[in-house]
């Protein structure tokens, strides 16, 4: 059977079957991508999506358009993708769903590769992978294009940059610095917040690959890997200079200390911590946009309890876990500071802490830290110029590392080579060459080397496929066994060592004894009690209960994630914008050619009024295949109602008081001006006027509203006219020009177009 910890479990099923952990990881990624794509396809474009599409439809593909800020965001790559889709496909949603699914797949594969490089080989690698791929905090990034076009590339850039830095730390090869720079640039061309990737790379390197106190850790990190910091500093300064020249300051000042406290407790207690354990379980609808996290009070306390218990348990087990959680805390401080400086003090500061998209990048860091705390850092091999961690993942000082034997004495730390037999591979010990110890090969070996592989070591950090171990040597003083008469088949040996615990050849002391490396946190010699587990040393009678409890907690988190995701899916599926767009398309296809409209805003639930002027119909429908025709005056006017249906228009607002002439209202003769009081005054603004009249002949007329005037043609007979005017006041003045003309009106309304009541 394959052992837990073997990165390449033996199998005969080809490329996938040869590595069962990789097969399981790809299955997790595929399931996540399909599930998220199905969820996204239930929804539609929303809010900022329409604004970005409108701007793309109105612009040519120029550098100026790509570098234009959107809500103070610099995202040239996102603008390029949106422009290409709008230009060739129009206002559609499916290409964005496809792109977000592709981004999710790339993120999952890249993150699994990072885990294989960063952590020890183990089936537990699937835990941080699943935490990232299914976290409810990233739902917006895989369903809402305006969020996904920023956050998915940033998350991918975070993973690639960290992987490149770890490769540089382990090998010292300069080519990894090129990958590091390109990874950071990938994030920056989609989202300026990706500047935090630079801070993440530094903090992660200091937390996981340097040792000592605070100042010693900083100095070691800067001194040992200074080329990375020199490159990233130059890159960051260049980007910030280009961004700040074109941007307007979005910094705000919180109105009070209470506002800051509310924001922080909301961000941590309602969004981040519940989201990391499958919450928030309940959502607060936000129109066509993504819902806001609104966890129940009990859910918040459960989330705090689970996270604190995990931190305490992992820190007790290995000291490097403490640094991993400090890394997560430091990144949370950076994110909270950036959000507080740009979101507080505004209209929406009361809910800023409950918006998952603001903290979706935290999930990547949390998944990395979870892997380090639960699985443990891999140990790079020696002798290749790779920089190993200064301190391995060992339990905190004072904990028992070497389990005692049955007689109460410490186990012997030397092993000797057994005598070769005719039925088993030779395991003789040869003296190592002078110089550094040879590394474990990164590729599988065809012929096992004649060397002792110590049970107490660790495997090469970067080996994608671990070599098969040779049989372990027996302790000193043990009489070699006689050749067995029933040996195991040579093609499927039962190794005495777990492949995950193999190490480099250890030097001989010249007396036939081979010294093994020190034990690490979760490894023990043959014959010792089973590993102590996540919660430290436990009596045998408690282990099964603890394992059952952990399994139940994991199942509960998975069920909570399913519930939260399903509730989000229901909220996301309710799209007023999709119904509105689909209805307008159907109505326009069957409308008469002379159907005209006055420009006006689309419903507020489709595009908020705060997005003016991009909420105007004339701009909203720029990407339509068949656009409505918009005019400024007409005899017969149509209007789109809140559902997208074409209706006969009228004007709702102030009207003139009834005129004195019976059967006529106000009689205006050629060359005369008549004042007509309004039932309600109008403020100075852009208004639409509807006038219904009866005229004896053709001519022209002028309507005055305060300081604003508008001229319109008069037709013989009973007619109406719609036109625009800018002005305000409590009355209108009508002047008619024409020969022998008699003009009657008792219907003048000043306001906004609306569907005519049936």
The total count of strands amounts to 16
Summed over residues and divided by their number, the pLDDT gives a mean of: 80
Low-confidence stretches: 1-12, 381-392, 397-533
Q: What spatial form do the alpha-carbon principal axes imply?
A: elongated
Task: List the total number of helices.
Answer: 19
User: What does the radius of gyration come to?
Assistant: 36 Å
Structural class: alpha+beta
Helix proportion: 40-55%
Describe the structure.
It is a single chain. With 758 residues, this protein is α+β, with helices and mostly antiparallel strands. 41% of the residues lie in helices and 14% in strands. Strands 8, 9, 10, 11, 12, 13, 14, 15 and 16 form a 9-stranded antiparallel β-sheet that branches. Strands 4-3-5 form a 3-stranded antiparallel β-sheet, with no helix packed on it. A two-stranded antiparallel sheet has the order 1-2. The longest helix has 34 residues, at 540-573. The radius of gyration is 36 Å and the shape is elongated. The termini are far apart. The relative contact order is 0.09. Mean pLDDT is 80; it is low at 1-12, 381-392 and 397-533.
């Amino acid at each position: 059977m394959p052992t837990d910890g073997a990165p390449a479990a033996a199998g005969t099923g080809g490329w996938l079957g040869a590595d069962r952990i990789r097969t399981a990881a790809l299955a997790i990624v595929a399931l996540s991508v399909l599930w998220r794509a199905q969820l996204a396809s239930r929804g539609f474009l929303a809010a900022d999506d329409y604004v970005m599409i409108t701007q793309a439809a109105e612009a040519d593909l120029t550098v100026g358009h790509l570098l234009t800020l959107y809500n103070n965001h610099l995202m040239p790559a996102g603008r390029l993708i949106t422009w290409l889709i709008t230009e060739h496909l129009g206002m559609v949603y499916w290409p964005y769903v496809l792109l977000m699914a592709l981004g999710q797949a790339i993120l999952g594969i890249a993150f699994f590769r990072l885990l294989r490089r960063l952590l020890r080989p183990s089936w537990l690698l699937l835990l941080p992978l699943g935490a990232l791929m299914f976290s409810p905090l990233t739902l917006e990034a895989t369903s809402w294009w305006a969020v996904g076009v920023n956050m998915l590339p940033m998350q991918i850039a975070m993973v690639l940059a960290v992987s490149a830095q770890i490769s540089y730390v382990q090998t010292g090869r300069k080519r990894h610095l090129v990958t590091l720079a390109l990874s950071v640039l990938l994030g920056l061309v989609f989202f300026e917040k990706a500047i935090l990737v630079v801070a993440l790379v530094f903090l992660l390197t200091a937390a996981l690959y340097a040792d000592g106190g605070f100042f010693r850790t900083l100095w070691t990190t800067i001194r040992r890997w200074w080329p990375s910091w020199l490159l990233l500093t130059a890159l960051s300064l260049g980007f910030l200079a280009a961004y700040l020249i074109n941007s307007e300051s979005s910094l705000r000042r919180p109105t009070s200390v209470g506002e800051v406290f509310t924001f922080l407790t909301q961000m941590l207690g309602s969004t981040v911590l519940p989201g990391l354990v499958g919450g928030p379980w309940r959502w607060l609808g936000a129109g066509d946009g993504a819902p806001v996290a609104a966890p129940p009070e009990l859910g918040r306390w459960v989330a705090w309890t689970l996270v604190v218990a995990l931190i305490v348990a992992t820190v007790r087990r290995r000291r490097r876990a403490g640094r991993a959680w400090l890394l997560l805390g430091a990144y949370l401080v950076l994110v909270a500071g950036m959000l507080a400086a740009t979101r507080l003090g505004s209209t929406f500061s009361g809910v800023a802490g409950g918006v998952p998209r603001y903290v979706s990048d935290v999930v990547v860091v949390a998944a990395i830290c979870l892997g380090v705390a639960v699985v443990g850092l891999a140990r790079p091999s020696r002798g290749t110029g790779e920089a190993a961690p200064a301190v391995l993942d060992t339990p905190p000082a004072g904990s028992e590392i070497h389990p005692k034997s049955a007689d109460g004495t410490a186990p012997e730390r030397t092993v000797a080579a057994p005598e070769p037999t005719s039925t088993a591979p030779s395991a003789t010990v040869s003296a190592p060459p002078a110089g550094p110890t040879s590394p474990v090969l990164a590729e599988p070996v065809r012929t096992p080397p004649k060397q002792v592989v110590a049970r107490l070591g660790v495997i090469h950090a970067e080996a994608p496929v671990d070599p098969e171990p040779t049989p372990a040597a027996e302790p000193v003083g043990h009489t070699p066994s006689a050749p067995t008469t029933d040996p195991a088949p040579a093609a499927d040996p039962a190794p005495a060592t777990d492949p995950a615990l193999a190490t480099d050849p250890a030097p001989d002391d010249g007396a036939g004894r081979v010294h093994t490396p020190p034990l690490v946190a979760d490894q023990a010699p043959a014959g010792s009690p089973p590993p102590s587990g996540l919660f430290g040393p436990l009596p045998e009678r408690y282990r099964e209960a603890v394992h059952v409890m952990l399994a139940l907690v994991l199942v509960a988190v998975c069920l909570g994630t399913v519930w939260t995701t399903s509730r989000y899916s229901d909220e996301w599926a309710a799209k007023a914008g999709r119904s509105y767009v689909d209805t307008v398309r159907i109505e326009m296809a069957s409308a008469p050619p002379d159907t005209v409209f006055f420009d006006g805003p689309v419903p507020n639930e489709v595009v908020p009024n705060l997005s003016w002027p991009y909420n105007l119909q004339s701009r909203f429908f720029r990407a339509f295949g068949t656009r409505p025709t918009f005019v400024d005056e007409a005899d017969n006017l149509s209007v789109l109602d809140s559902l997208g249906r074409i209706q006969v228009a009228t004007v709702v607002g102030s009207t003139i008081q009834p005129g004195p002439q019976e059967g006529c209202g106000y009689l205006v003769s050629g060359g005369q001006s008549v004042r007509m009081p309004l039932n309600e005054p109008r403020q100075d603004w852009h208004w639409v006027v509807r006038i219904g009249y009866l005229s004896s002949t053709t001519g022209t007329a002028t309507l005055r509203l305060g300081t604003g005037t508008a001229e319109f043609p008069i037709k013989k007979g009973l007619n109406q006219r719609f036109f625009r005017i800018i002005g305000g006041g409590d009355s209108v003045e009508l002047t008619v020009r024409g020969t022998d003309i008699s003009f009657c009106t008792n219907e003048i309304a000043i306001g906004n177009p609306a569907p005519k009541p049936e």
